[in-house]
Amino acid sequence: MRDRLRLPLKYHDLKFGYYYTSPVRTFPTLLLTEGELFAMLVAEKAVQQYRGTTFEKPLVSAFKKMAASLPETVSLSLRDLDQSVSFRTSAEPIVNLRIFDTLAKATAGRQQVRMMYRKPGTSRPEERIIDPYHLANINGEWFLFAYDHLRNDLRTFVPSRIQSARLTGKKFERPQNFSVDSALSGSFGVHSPEGHYDVVIQFDKEVADYVREKRWHSSQKLRPLRDGGVELRLKLSSLKEIERWVLGWGGHAVVKQPPEVVQRVRAAAERMLKTSADQ
């Protein structure tokens, strides 16, 4: 207690025991190393991404409880660390917090939801009745995995496209075999499996280092090219997101296979050239 918790203890020679030499207002019950304390600060910074969501209050409460359990004196300067770590997102999804709160509570409580949902490219929303299985934050954006009673199948919804949501009062049982990992197995993002595709993309030397520095997919394999570039091989179950990703490299990436992705990227590039020429 004296050496590890730094409590004001002293040995009493006459009473053969220890006593406090000054009042002890709090009793630190949580022992953290400097590395653990730094990691906790990083985690607290990460919580800032959830400001305004239904997760903010319990997360902040948990950090306050941990902070209260720490000794009053620590060997790290939290002020210095606070200036050393931060989280930034380039594009923050716009989410109706009231709707998001309804979805989060329904998912946790296994409650059925009636919602008005607008699909991309449509002007009017349509009513859906769903059993919300799982909320996931993928690459900074929220997605809801739910059983859609209209489609009689598992579907992925974007909360920012939900215009209204309310509980139906009915409960549901989440299937024991449901797993978000299985639902996204082989996907490059959030689209459900549609088949099996071997994707090969070659990057020039100008962006090769950026490609090497990240794990883009669990199946990825990299092969250096003679000109300093790099070849990326992926095994995917859906091609819906790979086209946009390739186009995002601005001409520094060339798709070698499969043929359907080669055609899509070529057609998209031609549309962009035509649009630019028409301006």
Q: What is the percent of helical residues?
A: 25-40%
Approximately how much beta-strand content do the residues carry? Answer: 25-35%
In total, the number of domains comes to 3
**Secondary-structure content class:** alpha+beta
Morphology: extended
End-to-end separation in angstroms reads 75 Å
**Average pLDDT taken over every residue:** 82
Quickly give the CATH architecture of the largest domain.
Roll
* Order of strands, widest sheet: 6-5-4-3-7
In CATH terms, what is the fold-level topology of the largest domain? Answer: SH3 type barrels
Following the backbone from N to C, one meets helices and strands in this order, namely: EEHHHHEEEEEHEHEEHEH
**DSSP summary, beta strand count:** 11
What's a quick, concise take on this entry?
The chain is of the alpha+beta class and 279 residues long.
